């Protein structure tokens, strides 16, 4: 079982930056990928970015060129650097893991609120 804890959310003006952190603990050796997701009020939860154990990354189209996902293996932490933030980026951001052999993400963190003012 993997436990995840997100941090780094807050209130920022449009055009600003935030860095989110996702700290993992527990059975982390079986992690294939870590993903960041977000859910705005009244909307479904969408994938934002993922990073695989081999280092490959992927991004949802709305954040390409503005967000960067990275990891620090020594700290068991995955980051989401968010630049050029827009009001439409406002949401609760979650991280989750995809275990080896699984096709879905699980072990969701509690989420961190990101609010971008115009």
Could you please describe the fold and organization of this structure?
The protein is mainly β. It has strands at residues 2-7, 10-13, 18-26, 31-39, 46-52, 57-59, 67-72, 77-82, 91-99, 112-117. A six-stranded mixed β-sheet has the order 2-10-9-4-5-6, with no helix packed on it. Strands 1-3-8-7 form a four-stranded antiparallel β-sheet, with no helix packed on it. Strand 4 and strand 5 form a beta hairpin. 30% of the residues are buried. The model has no long low-confidence stretch (mean pLDDT 95).
Query: What is the overall pLDDT average?
Result: 95
Major beta sheet summary:
6 strands, mixed
Instruction: Give the total of beta strands.
Output: 10
Q: What class, by secondary structure content?
A: mainly beta
> Which term fits the overall shape?
globular
Round the Cα radius of gyration to an integer and report it. Answer: 13 Å
Write the H/E string, N to C. Answer: EEEEEEEEEE
Strand % is: over 45%
Give the low-pLDDT segments.
Answer: none
Q: Strands of the largest sheet, in order across it?
A: 2-10-9-4-5-6
The end-to-end span amounts to 40 Å
